[in-house]
Amino acid sequence: MVKELKGTNSGEMIVAAIYSLSQKIMMLYSRVVFRETGLNWQDWRILRAVVALQSCRAQDICDEIGIQKTHVSTGLARLEERGHISRKRNKGDGRSRIVMSTELGQELVACARPKLQELEARISNQTGVGDTGALLSSLETYQKELGRLLRDAETG
Questions:
Q1: Cα end-to-end span (Å), the chain
Q2: pLDDT (tens digit, 9 = 90+) per residue, 42-57?
Q3: Residue-wise over 26-50: b if at least 16 C-beta within 10 A, else e?
Q4: 41, 116 contact by CB (below 8 A)
Q5: Which domains are present in the chain?
Q6: How many CB atoms lie within 10 A of CB 25?
Q7: How far apart, in Å, are the Cα atoms of 134 and each of 7, 22, 96?
Q8: Bigger pLDDT: 3 or 98?
Q9: CA-only gyration radius of the chain, Å
Q10: Mean pLDDT lowest for which of 45-49, 55-59, 66-70, 142-146?
Q11: Residue 123 has pLDDT above 90, yes or no
């Protein structure tokens, strides 16, 4: 049994390796983000999405970064309190508000970007990954295939 778990074909070992890797990378990024911005990882991801989307709803942010709406709403409240975003009533839908980044929020993202790019380069160089675009493409393909397998398992 132990021999099976150590095999290179063990799905459990692949899952464990991916999970461990993702946790370590997230911790590295979150430490740099906090040091550079004072924001936690989740709030940083929300702010980055708002800056990228420019004018959006909370649901758009959820769709963009895959965080539940309750967490996005809480993060938006913190970001608004710190002056990084503003929200106004959505004239097209009275139930939602339009979220926009402030100049302060845009500056924060711009100031942190070089440090994060430096971290990405260091991670790529240390791991021998080289072309992160190719790695991301492979991971996205793998993610899509796993999603298909998951859907098949739910219906089958």
A1: 28
A2: 999 999 999 999 999 9
A3: eeebbebbeebbebeebbbbbbbbb
A4: no
A5: 2-120 (1.10.10.10)
A6: 14
A7: 26, 17, 38
A8: 98
A9: 19
A10: 142-146
A11: no
Query: 68 near 61, Cβ under 8 Å?
Result: no
pTM of the model: 0.75
Cβ(82)–Cβ(50) under 8 Å?
Answer: no
Q: Which two tokens stand for residue 64?
A: 């963009």
The letter for the amino acid at 153 is: A
Higher-confidence residue: 109 or 151? 109
Tokens 């100031």: give the residue: 111
CA–CA separation, 73 and 61 (whole Å): 10
Tokens of 118: 């430096």
Taking Cα atoms as reference points, which of 81, 79, 85, 80 lies closest to residue 39? Answer: 79
The residue whose two tokens read 């420019």 is: 54
